[in-house]
Description:
The chain is an alpha+beta fold and 296 residues long.
Amino acid sequence: MSEEKRLxxxxxxxxxxxxxxxxxxxxxxxxxxxxxxxxxxxAQNFPLDILLVRDDDIPAFLATDVCQLGILGQxxxxxxxxxxxxxxxxxxxxxxxxxxxxxxxIAVPHDFIYExxxxxxxxxxxxxxxxxxGQYLATHKIKADIVTMEGAVEVAPRTHLAxxxxxxVSTGSTLISNGxxxxxxxxxxxxVLVMNQISDPEIAAIADKITSRIKAVLxxxxxxxxxxxxxxxxxxxxxxxxxxxxxxxVMPLQGCDDMVAVHxxxxxxxxWDTMEDLKDCGANSILVVPIEKMLD
Length: 296
């Protein structure tokens, strides 16, 4: 009897992105059991194995076909592709996850005179992203020396290792505490689902199925279901206010010739301002509820 074919996906072994990735798969209906060494999760109800590894190693796991899918930051993937001479060129970003958002930015000390990217000519820049920074400088025809650091990049100007830095920024509090000011953004990054080329049609079919589920979960998380009552004369105005809704369902209300019920899936943010705008247009009995699953 032939062994069951199973898809393998690599995710970060610790941190917020690790927790998010496991929660995402669980929302896809995947029931997971961890191994004793905590390096492998095996799905009990789906042909899927999850490898928990360092984020820097995920591209290599994909490129060597140890895994077929991976969830990692765009910054990690693009940096590997920038310095690998084509080793990771077959890796494809399937879809953004929307978590782990950050940016790779140039930051300078307060007393550094920065008028444009040209201000970096002849300077020393410290970074953990030599590949991406090198590409950015080359695109802008800037000649600068790059000092590669694996951590604590923000201290480089204070210790006179570099004039400025290029580092990941999320809130910006680390820059502020080290007397640095963010200037140019090189890359806007977030977690992405990445795939290597899959030659086995059975594995490819499993990858398509789990990708479809992930898309459905992400779409549902970013959507809301709105129900409201509207005067017939206000219907067009209300439809114009509904965010991201292409074709709401409109139904007559029993016993009310001049009123209709409107149901809509809105794939953009629904905030208090939206509800107040709907009310101003004549809507009443407005109900906004989250969507657990949504599959086209």
